[in-house]
Design brief:
By secondary structure, this protein is an alpha/beta fold. About 40% of the residues lie in helices and about 20% in strands. The protein contains 11 helices and 10 strands. Strands 1, 2, 3, 4, 5, 6, 7, 8, 9 and 10 form a 10-stranded mixed sheet that branches.
């Protein structure tokens, strides 16, 4: 019998082989474009990893550039990797990107990450949590004294959930970090009491848990949402629609933060233009990859209020009727 870990490793190996093949066969439409590019995505089981692989394939077909993905811990690592030029694209949430741009988050150690530019608006990232039904956990305040898993330490959940819990005066007895798949496994095995995450809907690890376990989704009160938005301005209203998960029988208000794909600032303008065109002209293809793709729409460019767009991205948006202001465009 092939165990789950062996299957995952085999799939990763196949993915690497396919990526190598794409690089070998790459024929960029423009000789000045790179033959290959890499996108930093997210942990296995996270929405970003699925969306990113789909977007990379769509953009590869359109440009002839071999685009592959790299599994990472999420936005913090992606910001660092794109800023250093170690990857050319990355998935970020705008709260952590604001910290990186200004060098204000603890993880930045005061360094401003200014070699990155905004490109494709992706989707909203709602903050959400799940527990086993037998635990009796259903509210954020039920997490006092409980063992909680938060996803990767460098991702949006791992960096933002501790602040959310602190602002709500919730103190878990222990916090674990790791991939979404790992956290789902720990919850199923009873090694943690709750799994808190933040990703586009639906979270694959949550959906998988529901196939084998009786689960309960963890909710915020209206007062908690209002308090969080006042203390953390990067957060906005968000909603997990009923039916997103099998056990979710009514619309569930929460807080969320928007995702964008960032690119290295020195990428050719015409290449970034074509990348935008490939994904945003119609979102049918990306919506087939993951349900969040229906939110990957050009009009959502205005969810970004501070990070300069790459000139190629701004040109595509402006050519298609979106009034990106000059102060949001930078080489």
């Amino acid at each position: 019998m092939i165990d789950r870990r062996s299957l995952m490793l085999g799939t990763a190996g196949l993915g690497a082989a396919l990526a190598t093949g794409r690089r070998a066969l790459a024929q960029p439409r423009n000789a000045n474009w790179p033959r290959a590019m890499v996108m930093g995505t997210a942990s296995a089981g996270g929405t970003g990893a699925i969306w990113g692989e789909g977007a990379a394939q769509i953009m590869s077909r359109a440009t002839g550039v071999a685009m592959s993905t790299r599994t990472t811990q999420g936005p913090v690592q992606n910001i660092v990797l794109v800023d250093r030029g170690e990857v050319q694209m990355g998935i970020v949430t705008m709260g952590l990107m604001l910290q990186g741009w200004n060098g204000q988050g603890d993880w930045t150690q005061g360094r401003q990450h200014r070699n990155v530019r905004a490109s494709i608006p992706m989707y909203d990232t709602p903050f959400q949590g799940i527990a086993l039904a037998r635990s009796g956990i259903s509210k954020i305040t039920d997490l006092n004294g409980k063992r909680v898993g938060l996803g990767p330490r460098g991702g949006t959940p791992g960096t933002t959930w501790p602040t959310i819990l602190r602002n709500l005066n919730v103190t878990p007895s222990a916090i674990r970090y790791g991939s979404a798949n790992d956290m789902g496994g720990l919850l199923a095995d009873g090694l943690i009491d709750a799994f808190l995450f933040a990703a586009g809907l639906p979270v694959a690890a949550f959906t998988e848990l529901e196939t084998t376990q009786q689960t309960k989704h963890i909710t915020f009160t209206a007062q908690e949402i209002a308090s969080l938005k006042s203390k953390m301005p990067e957060l906005g209203d968000s909603m997990i629609p009923r039916g997103t998960y099998r056990g979710l029988t009514e619309d569930t208000p929460t807080v969320g933060i928007y995702n964008f794909m960032i690119v290295q600032k020195d990428l050719p303008d015409d290449l970034v233009f074509e990348m935008m065109k490939a994904v945003l002209t119609t979102n049918t293809d990306i919506a087939r990859v993951h349900g969040t793709g229906k939110e990957t729409l050009p009009q959502n460019w205005n969810k970004n209020t501070f990070l300069p767009f790459h000139p190629g991205a701004a040109k595509w948006l402006r050519d298609n009727g979106h009034r990106v202001p000059d102060n949001l465009v930078l080489r």
